[in-house]
Amino acid sequence: MTNTVRTAIFPVAGLGTRFLPATKATPKELLPVLDTPLIQYAIDEARAAGIERMVFVSHSSKPAVERYVMDDLRLRRELVSRGKQKLAHELKEAALDPQDDDVVFTFQEEPKGLGHAVLCARDHVLDGPVAVILPDDLILGTPCLAEMIAAYEGGHMVASMTVAPDQVSKYGVLSVTGQDGRKTRANGMVEKPAPEKAPSQMAVIGRYVLDADIFDALGTQPPGAGNEIQLTDAIAKGAATRPITGFRFSGTRFDCGSKAGMLEATLQLASEDPELSQVLETFMVDQTRPRSAA
Questions:
Q1: Which residues pair with 130 in a beta bridge?
Q2: Where would you tag: which of 23, 164, 184, 188 has the fewest CB atoms within 10 A of its CB?
Q3: What's the CA gap between 52 and 30, in Å, rounded?
């Protein structure tokens, strides 16, 4: 079987409850970091990794996701008619084209967990291992998925980073057996362990390169933490026969599933923009000025 990673799965069916009321009308994946939606960063990362087919596992209540992802010829023509050719070109470059790109939309109608969302893509993936990208894990800098695919040697590979002991309960955590440069060898994973029961501080981040047999494992995986079908549990199930590798990526990760993470990412990108960095600098100066009593 080929080790070429040809398919990327984007689980985007969640309701984004931590961002209500904004996500009542706007899917979480379309929330912008400055002017770029989270899902665009994920699409660009998949493109940089040479992915052939993108499978979006969405929900029927979120048609805006497909509308954003796919090219909108009518909108572009309207922009051109108004003399906004540059903006029309930028939209075309960002979007996926139904003729030129291999794109599939499928649905996860019940919130049964990340593992179930990945399983919903089973009938739509190309041969070989598959990638999974969680858009709300924003990784800036060197494209993470491309790094992982270049280092992939089979089995299951997960992006990983060291977190503080009091943070391990927010993540899947690797049971570490060794280290080889950027690669962490593991013989298992635990989903959201209590700090005193965590096998390590090596947390799993939202990028995966998985052997195709992950779908067989997910098909028989009982519910785990949160009464959901956990991808972490399915990966750990095959540890005896499929090696598990954590990969220390070189980019900077922001947890944009949280308000704090979204703010951090926004401030980081703003600080890199000459015009916006001046706004930040002015704001910080204003905060240090003494305020007179009312």
A1: 7, 210
A2: 164
A3: 23
Tokens read off for 284: 């910080």
Question: Considering only CA atoms, which of 47, 43, 96 is closest in space to residue 70?
Answer: 96
Name residue, tokens 């969302």: 117
Do 43 and 52 meet the contact criterion of CB atoms below 8 Å apart? no
CB 173 within 8 A of CB 204: yes
For the stretch 59-96, pLDDT in tens is 999 999 999 999 999 999 999 999 999 999 999 999 99
Distance, CA of 92 to CA of 171 (rounded, Å) = 36
Rounded Cα gap, residues 165 and 169, in angstroms: 8
Looking only at the bridges linking them, the beta strands covering 244-248 and 202-210 are unpaired
Q: In which region does residue 141 sit, left (phi positive, over 0), alpha (psi from -120 to 50) or beta (all else)? A: left
Q: For residue 186, list its beta bridge partners.
A: 176, 244
Q: Give the residue carrying structure tokens 């220390």.
A: 248
CATH class as words, domain 7-257? alpha beta
Q: Decide: 131 and 121 in contact? Cβ < 8 Å.
A: no
**239 DSSP 8-state letter:** T
What are 236-279's pLDDT values in tens digits?
A: 887 878 889 999 999 999 999 999 999 999 999 999 998 898 88
**pLDDT at residue 228, rounded to an integer:** 85
Closest to 136 (Cα-Cα) out of 3, 30, 287, 25: 30
Burial 266-292 (b: 16+ CB within 10 A, else e): beebbeeeeeeeeeeeeeeeeeeeeee
Three-class SS state of 119: helix
In one-letter notation, the amino acid at residue 243 is P
- What are the tokens at 97? 């084209």
